[in-house]
Specification:
mainly beta, four-stranded antiparallel β-sheet
């Protein structure tokens, strides 16, 4: 059974930093693209950043240069270091694992990040 468990959300002032982590269990991590998505109130869920098993990384333009995604294949974890946070980064952040072109995809329950101005 695949489980993704996020941690690290919270409340931070604009300009501050947070680090999100996602621990994956089950036979999924080593063969999957791991990613972070977010959903703000009234908006659709969208990609923040993802990283392939080989380390190729993709960021949405709005976070490039401020956020850093990384994965530890030995510990089955993926992290998102978020710096220079802005109020518009406020959202529920979800960990995702997908493989085989999204034929298999799994989501965590999400962790709330609130950035106050």
């Amino acid at each position: 059974q695949v489980q993704l468990v996020e941690s690290g959300g919270g409340v931070v002032q604009a300009g501050g930093s947070l680090r999100l982590s996602c621990a994956a269990s089950g036979d999924i991590f080593s063969s999957s693209v791991m990613g972070w998505y977010r959903q703000a109130p009234g908006k659709r869920r969208g990609l923040v950043a993802d990283i392939t098993k080989d380390g190729s990384i993709n960021y949405v333009d709005s976070v490039r240069g401020r956020f850093t995604i990384s994965r530890d294949n030995a510990k089955n974890t993926v992290s998102l270091q978020m710096n220079s946070l802005k109020p518009e980064d406020t959202a529920v952040y979800y960990c995702n694992a997908n493989r085989r072109g999204w034929l298999e995809a799994y989501w965590g329950k999400g962790t709330l990040v609130t950035v106050s101005s």
